[in-house]
Amino acid sequence: MNTPTHSSESPEPKDAPDALDAHYTPRHVKRKIAMVILGLCVFAYGWSQLWPPLSIFLAGNHALAEATQVIKTKPGLPDQVFTNDVGLSGATESHDRSYVFWNEFKFVTPDKKEREIRLDIGSHIKPLFPLLDEDGLPTTVQIYYDPKNPDRTCVPSLLSTWFAPGLITFMGAVCFLFGCLILYNARRKIEIN
Predict the structure, then answer these.
(1) What span, in angstroms and rounded, lies between the C-alpha atoms of 60 and 145?
(2) Domain that holds residue 97
(3) Whole-prediction pTM value?
(4) Would 56 disulfide with which of 16, 41, 60, 81, CB 3.0-4.6 Å?
């Protein structure tokens, strides 16, 4: 009785690619185009938030602004106005974050006109700046303003001025550039060795 003998080497499948001609094509072009568009949209949004303070900082005038008052606001309630730190110290909110504290400053333009501004950035726990410094003098901060419209201001020393829009712009740029890179290689045959 003869039994079939099995060779120790198994034959290669007929459809297996030759090891020397093995290539891989990444594909998924539509998804990569979507990633490029998404990155571009995120970058455009971040830049639209970053450009206004940046343009004022680069091309605007600067002045030393003096703290005048703090406004405490909450939707549905009347605003509370504080002109000294004594009343303000009892009004801080450690638990209720629905309140917003807005600092107001005044500064003098080169044509000797006094302007009062409210910072575009508020705080939920306590004001960003006290009304008086450690010497008992009004708190001062360097501001930049648009000479054509002095109500448009920015405070470069505040991290909040740059952090969120700068981070969004950076993330959009990274997503766009990475998307362009993988889209460029989407239809290229990559040799596998």
Answers:
(1) 5
(2) 61-146
(3) 0.70
(4) 60
